[in-house]
Design brief:
This protein has 488 residues and is an alpha+beta fold. It folds into three domains: 193 residues; 73 residues; 149 residues, Heat Shock Protein 90 (2-Layer Sandwich). The protein contains twelve helices and eight strands.
Length: 488
């Protein structure tokens, strides 16, 4: 069974900046246009060559070619806009980055880099230009493929919906009016005979360009249809924005309450830690005196038990304090350090605990694993926690292994044991705060349930990933991927 660490209990409702939303929408529109180009070429060939439908196929192929040039130009304009504020020392490098970014979006539907300072107005201008040009070219396509006889006239609605999603209500209604004007002008000019009409022979039994009732009916349905589509799309878009805003507000309130709770826990645990430290030091002095022959009796046993409890409670408070501090502060002292040395230190710290249980502690780190960017103290604490857990829940004469190797641009650290494992139904919860698996509670009563929560936070803070593979009774393997470059 494999499970990945997640961050439970929090909504991912970070608002997307308006300029980034528009930029993604502009790329999305350009991406859809490639599909339309293929559709025009294939549709023209099938309809004209295979089905014998009458149309000006040469003009339609020419428009498809024009669409290719036009769409490539739009993508280059968007990429220039994206990188307008980026300081690139070489023009050639800028062009290569721009072309690569365009190809990455077209084929993989993802950005390689987005300039957060892209102007909303500039992106909107490009979107408006795209929609206006699309409407003009769609009108031309209709003209050379039957005009009002072509059922593809209702494809205008797609552009109206896209305009409603990406642009304001005013702009979407303006584009709708422009579409109605383009279509109405095309129908009128063909009806008056001022421009030619390419009848869809083979599809319709008679040319319909001068059928007044059909023309008026189609134009009426088209006009009311596009305006209704824009109204409905705008209504849905506004409702979705209001809902998203309400979710963001609710999420912000939850995060604020969570922060207040963490601050309260931090203050309380800090005070408790001081009192526990004093109690533990007093009990330690008494326990040292009871180490001799006179240390028998019920009273001495009670004092030793109280001292052990104080030590465990102090460890719990320290873990809770550490976890709360990490949740409250996002700042870490990041720097380049030797991952190999941090792993060596963690293994050395756990080795005595392993030797007490006659556990074989294997350690294998590739020679290529060395420098990494991060917080050395946190990374060492993370590995130590996992190794201690592995030793604690592995029976005597078992095996615990730590391996590390380079994996492209990241370091992969694996910690495996031959211990009691984790029940399959509980693996998704092991990173939750205060949670302990049922077999872990049976194996050892004392435990904070905070160690893996701290591990998860450390991994997330380093923009890494953690996975667990386990089978109850056969052991557990943790896989941690840590990026080696600087964190953005």
């Amino acid at each position: 069974m494999r499970s990945k660490a997640s961050c439970p209990g929090k909504l991912d409702m970070e608002p997307v900046p308006e300029n980034i939303r528009l930029l993604k929408g502009a790329y999305w529109l350009a991406r859809l246009r490639w599909i339309a180009i293929v559709y025009v070429v294939v549709g023209t060939y099938v309809a004209h060559r295979m089905l014998g439908v009458g149309m000006n196929d040469v003009a339609l192929y020419a428009i498809a070619g024009l669409l290719v040039v036009y769409n490539t130009t739009v993508l280059l304009m968007l990429n220039r806009l994206m990188q307008a504020d980026q300081q690139v020392p070489c023009r050639a490098a800028n062009k290569i980055a721009s072309v690569y970014n365009m190809i990455a979006w077209v084929w993989f539907n993802r950005f390689t880099k987005i300039d957060p300072h892209v102007s909303c107005k500039a992106v909107k201008r490009i979107i408006n230009l795209q929609i206006c040009t699309d409407l003009l070219l769609l009108t031309a396509l209709l003209h050379f493929s039957g005009g009002i006889e072509n059922p593809l006239v209702f494809y205008f609605i797609f552009h109206m919906i896209i305009a409603s999603i990406l642009l304001s209500m005013r702009e979407s209604y303006l584009h709708t009016t422009l579409a109605v004007c383009f279509f109405g002008l095309l129908v009128l000019l063909e009806y008056k005979g001022l421009i030619g009409h390419y009848c869809l022979t083979g599809y319709v039994s008679t040319c319909l360009r001068q059928e007044k009732l059909y023309i008026l009916g189609t134009f009426f349905v088209f006009t009311t249809g596009v305006y209704l589509a824009v109204y409905m799309a705008n209504y849905i878009a506004i409702r979705l924005k209001h809902t998203e805003y309400a979710y963001r507000q609710a999420n912000a309130m939850l995060q604020e309450k969570d922060r207040i709770k963490d601050q309260y826990v931090l203050r309380v645990t800090h005070d408790i830690k001081g009192h526990l430290a004093a109690i533990q030091s007093c009990l330690a002095a008494i326990v040292d005196r009871l180490a001799g022959p006179a240390g028998g009796g019920q009273e001495a046993d009670l004092i030793r038990r109280a001292y052990k409890r104080a030590v465990k409670l102090t460890d719990f408070v320290k873990s809770l304090l550490r976890l709360t501090q990490m949740r409250l502060t996002n700042k870490s002292e990041m720097d380049i350090f030797s991952l190999r040395e941090a792993l060596d230190s963690a293994v050395s710290g756990v080795r005595p605990q392993a030797e007490e249980k006659s556990i074989t502690l294997n350690y294998d780190v590739e020679s290529s694993v060395n420098d990494i960017f991060g917080d050395r103290f946190s990374i060492e604490e993370m590995v130590t926690n996992l190794l201690q857990n592995a030793v604690r829940y592995t029976p005597e004469k078992g095996t615990v292994s730590l391996t590390a190797r380079n994996n492209q641009d990241s370091a992969l650290v694996e910690i495996a044991d031959t211990g009691i494992g984790i029940p399959e139904g509980e693996q998704s919860r092991i990173f939750d705060e205060f949670y302990r698996a049922t077999n872990a509670r049976k194996a050892e009563r004392d435990g904070t349930g905070l160690g893996l929560s701290i591990v998860r936070l450390i991994v997330e803070r380093h923009h890494g990933e953690i996975e667990v593979e386990s089978k109850e009774g056969y052991g557990t393997r943790f896989k941690i991927r840590l990026p080696q470059g600087r964190l953005s």
